Amino acid sequence: MGLPALLLLALCAASARGLYFHIGETEKRCFIEEIPDETMVIGNYRTQMWDKQKEVFLPSTPGLGMHVEVKDPEGKVVLSRQYGSEGRFTFTSHTPGDHQICLHSNSTRMALFAGGRLRVHLDIQVGEHANNYPEIAAKDKLTELQLRARQLLDQVEQIQKEQDYQRYREERFRLISESTNQRVLWWSIAQTVILILTGIWQMRHLKSFFEAKKLV
């Protein structure tokens, strides 16, 4: 794929993955994110507690704790840390594949004051979308044109990582398919051998039976 096509894909790429969900006291909620290797991921979250009297979700108290745990495709813990009611977590992937991101509250105050209901707003940004370009421009004193060029280069690099990851997935799928086909072949051969041996045994058994009965 040429550079113009990569730039076009970069301009069309999505920039954020935001959502919210509800959890109860100490309940864990996990998400799966496909991430190429050597890719930075930033997650921003904020929590709201359910107010029974007003029947609305209000900003959580600072004392509420949220625990974030991230595991790579091999099950190794990449990040495990306690945060406050609102915060940001960052990690860099070193293995391509599905990463598991889990959040849960370890606060018992939620059950006492919020009826056990908590709303969590989560925004996960991957790759170049995790970069704070205004901060980079101020730090490196970049012009608007230089900053735009930096963004395009980062986007092209991220697309190349995505392509490498897709090739990695295709290679894994090919190896799994070949292994499965080989196992099916050997199983078919084993079934054929068993049927032949069973047929030979039945023929010999019938022959012995007929000879014993003096039918042949």
TrEMBL record:
Pfam families: EMP24_GP25L. Residues 28-126 form the GOLD domain. Residues 1-18 form the signal peptide. The keyword Endoplasmic reticulum applies. It is a single-pass type I membrane protein. Keywords: Endoplasmic reticulum, Membrane, Signal, Transmembrane, Transmembrane helix. SMART domains: EMP24_GP25L. One of its GO terms (cellular component) is endoplasmic reticulum membrane. InterPro entries: Emp24-like (IPR015720), GOLD_dom (IPR009038). It is found in: Endoplasmic reticulum membrane; Membrane. PANTHER family: TRANSMEMBRANE EMP24 DOMAIN-CONTAINING PROTEIN. Belongs to the EMP24/GP25L family. This is GOLD domain-containing protein.
